[in-house]
Design brief:
This protein is an alpha+beta fold. Helix content is 32%, strand content 21%.
């Protein structure tokens, strides 16, 4: 993968885990894939995106019932992860479940841009939390680590940075925090109309397997390609105790 200086970063060095994160979650998996030369559009959306969105939402309402979500294995896996991180998943929903619940309650999913909407649709379908970053604003390598009590973070929609409490699991690069794992992305690396190259990250939970994560990221890249053009790359898989 390449950063904003066009420096190629070998994939075995693209993402790493802190010793504490590896010890706490020895089998956690993360997937990352990129797509280059996209054309981000905020409004109006192209017809294909509207049609795809309506089709996926209709299929979702056929396949799921809100009252049964607590028994779904994927929903359960991320709820268990949240509890283990000290997050109440009934108050702060995992992003995939949150999108799913919106649709099942007959609400529209947020319309942000063709690229963001594309990976949100993939998250809705798979219930896998996904992040999308402007890849040219990222400084590899990425690291999954716990906050140290001094970290500050400004998420999308926040007016100003806030200090993180100790032991928050997060994803950071060489200069900034990219995401609070696995539910809130940073404002500084969000996708805008200026974005040309996108990094998609799929976040695992202990009970989520490699196949599920790869499928979710590949689906996100395919939807972005359909809605925003570009050329997608391969999906790379990282496990906390080794690269797969």
């Amino acid at each position: 993968m390449k950063n904003d200086n066009n420096k190629t970063v070998a994939m075995e060095h693209f993402l790493r885990w802190s010793e504490e994160a590896k010890t706490r979650f020895p089998n956690l998996i993360v997937c990352a894939g990129s797509i280059r030369n996209v054309k981000v559009k905020v409004e109006p959306h192209i017809l294909e995106s509207k049609t795809l969105k309506e089709s996926i939402m209709a299929r979702t309402r056929q396949n799921y019932k809100a009252e049964m979500l607590k028994d779904d294995s994927t929903v359960r896996a991320y709820r268990d992860l949240y509890w283990s991180l000290g997050i109440d998943p009934t108050k702060t929903r995992p992003s995939g479940e949150a999108l799913l619940r919106r649709v099942l309650h007959r609400n529209e999913i947020p319309t942000i841009s063709n690229v963001v909407d594309a990976y949100n649709l993939a998250s809705l379908e798979t219930i896998i939390p996904l992040s999308g970053f402007d890849q040219d604003l990222i400084v590899p390598p990425l690291e999954i680590r716990f906050s140290n009590g001094k970290d500050e973070f400004k998420g999308i929609g926040m007016d100003k940075p806030g200090k993180l409490t100790d032991k928050v699991l997060l994803v950071a690069d060489g200069k900034q925090i990219l995401c609070i794992y696995p539910y809130r992305d940073a404002d500084t690396t969000k996708i805008t109309e200026k974005t040309r190259n996108v990094l998609i990250v799929g976040y695992g939970a202990p009970a989520i397997n490699k196949t599920q994560l790869v499928a979710a990221v590949e689906k996100a890249l395919a939807y972005i390609e359909k809605m925003a053009g570009g050329r997608k790359g391969t999906v790379n898989v990282f496990q906390s105790n080794q690269q797969l």
